[in-house]
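Recall that a protein's primary structure is simply its ordered list of amino acids. Everything else, from secondary elements to tertiary packing, is in principle encoded there. The following example makes that idea concrete.
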Amino acid sequence: MITMSNQIELRHLSYFLAVAKELHFRKAAEKLYISQPGLSRQIKQMEAELDVVLLERNNRNVRLTKAGEYLQKELEATLENLYAVLANAKRIGEGIEGDLNFGYVGSAMQNIIPNLLIQIRNEYPKTHFNLKEMDNQKQIDSLQNQDIDIGFVRLERVPKNLVLCPILEDSFSLVLPQNHALNKSNFKDLSELKNEPFIMFDPSYSPNYHQKIMQIFDYFGFTPIVYHKTVHATSIYKLIELGFGISIVPSSLQIDSTSKVKFIDLDRIPQRTTLSAVWNKNNKNPILPKILQFVTDLKTS
């Protein structure tokens, strides 16, 4: 049976993680703003208390033992959760009901997120929001690391520890300059535009979404001429307005009729794209369960 005195403190764990990351005592000591001999003593004290070797050292190299590798992996997750708990306790003590970090793809900011924020503000006015536009994969990575609490993605599958909640099934719309000859009354199908340049969302922003768009072109039997790629709808609209091409976007990204681009709904094609909310089921943020009720209500509204 392993016994341990009370001599190991939170600072020992932080010191160990710093050395485990750098694998260099001097560099770790500089980042921690302590002396190298002092850091070395703290790590040796921790190893003595645990009665286990965590780091193998020689004049040239530092490397983790098997026990050290295990401890690094477990501590990173545990301490991150602990710091989050302490931060939440501080906020509650200051009278703040919660701090919520959102990630989202651009189309979620048209209606879904603004409506959600209004509901949250009305019910929990002391909740603070942090909003960051991110591609799908960055949101997944950030949810796994709990850098964000909830994301809005266009994905069909996510890792098992994440929950995916479909919010909006979206059709697609063709985007043209206002002076384009085609309009809602004379447009027949997309094949009429096979010789025109297209402006597309960059595939790296959302491979799943890009595949869905390409299925539309397959449906009409041609491969588009792609002249420009970007990750922002506003950039797409500006390029279209300037005559650089045309595009296809989710219908939820349509903007008002006073803009210099026009939209034609492609609602007769079978392809659809789904905007979903996603969160980590292991997230301990105390405000998150309260907010998820609003999210699930979006699904039924």
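The mean pLDDT is 87. The chain has three domains: 10-91, 99-163+276-300, 172-271.
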